[in-house]
Amino acid sequence: MVGGLVLPHSQHHVATPRTAAQAPATPALEHAPCFTTVSARPARGGLDEVRKVHARHVKLGLDRSPRHARPLLAACALGEWPGNMEYAAAIFATLDDPVAFDYNTLMRGHVVSGRDPAAALRLYVDMLQNGVDPDGYTFPFVLKACAQLAASQQGRQLHGHAVKLGFSQRNEHVQNSLVSFYGKCGEAELARRAFEQMEAGERTAASWSALLAAYTRAGRWAECLESFGAMARDGWRPDESSMVSALSACAHLGAHDVGRSVHCALLRNTVRLNTFMKTSLVDMYAKCGCIDKATAVFDGMEGEKNVWTYSAMVSGLALHGDGRKALQVFDAMVSEGHMPDEAVYVGVLNACSRSGLLNEGLRCFDRMRLEHIVAPNAQHYGCMVDLMARAGRLEEARALIGNMPTGPTDLAWRSLLNACRIHGDIELAERALRELARLSGAANAGDYIILADMHARAKNWDAAAALRAEAVDRGLAQAPGFSDVEVHGRMHRFVSQDRSHPRTADIYEMLHQMEWQLRFEGYKPDTTDVALDADDEEKLRAIAAHSQKLAMAFGLLSTPEGSTVRVVTNLRMSKECHAYSTLISEIFGREVVVRDRNRFHRFRRGACSCGNYW
Predict the structure, then answer these.
(1) pLDDT per residue over 440-455, tens digit each?
(2) Dihedral angle at the C-alpha atoms of 336, 339, 343, 347, nearest 10 degrees?
(3) Pairing between strand 565-569 and 483-487?
(4) Distance of CA 420 to the CA centre of its chain
(5) What whole-number distance in Å separates Cα of residue 160 and Cα of residue 155?
(6) 142: which residues sit within 8 A by CB, 6+ positions away?
(7) Cα separation, 15 vs 531, whole angstroms
(8) What's residue 113's pLDDT?
(9) Cβ of 516: how many Cβ atoms within 10 Å?
(10) How much is the pTM?
(11) Strand 592-595 vs strand 565-569: parallel, antiparallel, or unpaired?
(12) Per-residue model confidence as pLDDT tens digits over 329-371
């Protein structure tokens, strides 16, 4: 890591903006002329070839001639043999008056595959101190070095220097590098500003791709999809990188229709999908509730699957609660010679937990430690606590937390707290909340709400009110619950009792019809999860316009007969909504797929894929 990028004062006051007519005379690396028999990218055995040519130059006294040294410098800097950069540095040191092109060549070698990005920044400082002006090809290399080092401060200095030298405008290489740099440093807003400073005619597919990658890295999924749409509207054909970013956004948002459109675009524009793109498709379809399509893509990757592919499939099956199938995929992975890593085992243990496969989960945990020599981390122990606690073995789960080599974590205690809610153990839930509060204030508003609701169901209204008041006093704000439903490629969001949608009247009329038909079939609302000290009528009103019910009503109203209604909610599925959705799927003859904050529920013909274990 570079301690700081110091730009000499002499370079600041002499820097003047360059016009197109004042473009630097040094040639681009990509178009470097080759003056000797040495290729810029030597094949195997290239080191011997370079040494022979170098020795010939030394013998003839040509080793200090830029015309002869530059091809050797490029061959070494871009070579892939051990010691190539040391040899390149030795050649560079022999040059009498190296110019920007020579510095760029060596910088490029240092940032290739992240070899030594700090060395590239040191070269840039040396370049300025030696009075050599950077050119338009210098900044992409040093900005890439800053991105590899996550050196945000140094990158901002370089941005300022590029502005002073006039390279931040009308130079697509520098502009794209700025967008990419800020994105890789997690500065999505600055990446957007750098992108917007480019004229419309200056933007390229690479510019859009860098912006989409910045949004993806920052988890700004909605903006990623909006930009992807804007890119298409501007007439740009998205490249593979842009489409993979869009697929990732679709996966996190549950935007199935948009993800399917991206898949179609990939098939139209790509001769052959590579493993990375197919793995992204597996992940997208699984997280959008289409586990059948994810399986179809996965099964079609004969001979192409890698550890990431298996991890995506196992994690997808875990989300859908299909632990048996996840274990079969895991066994196939091992039998094909792939070594499972930490991420794969997180998926496997999650799959066992969500399917209630206690014994299988315990065996997998032993295999991880003893057979595949993977050291369990906090996530693995959190999965094991969840697995045991869900199965009712609360005391054993608590003991495991106390014996974790990593020390107790908020994930483990929160898993135990959730299980206490399922099994109604208020005493242990109170201890879990206390431990969460001790872990550097790891407790959040949701933790207090869980325990408060448990007290409310036990009619301990004073205790419930005290917990909610404590959460407020601690400044913990509960994120509002919402449910999204996808209609014609657009996500519509609803909150409880929502009346802000343009079709509110139609939605509530549909909700009334749904309620009437369910009651005709003998449905009775379940108010046991309503943590209100109120009469039954008020509780019924509270659950009648739940965000998930509003989303389903709008989905049924706005999608063709027989199509699937897809809902994504940040809430945990309640018993009332589960029973309600089950009956809706039977009475209306529609498949309803709901992704709650933990897993998928696929309602079809009056049954749920979770088997009532959630």
Answers:
(1) 777 888 899 999 989 9
(2) 40
(3) antiparallel
(4) 31
(5) 9
(6) 107, 120, 121, 124, 158
(7) 67
(8) 75
(9) 10
(10) 0.84
(11) parallel
(12) 999 999 999 999 999 999 999 999 999 999 999 999 999 999 9
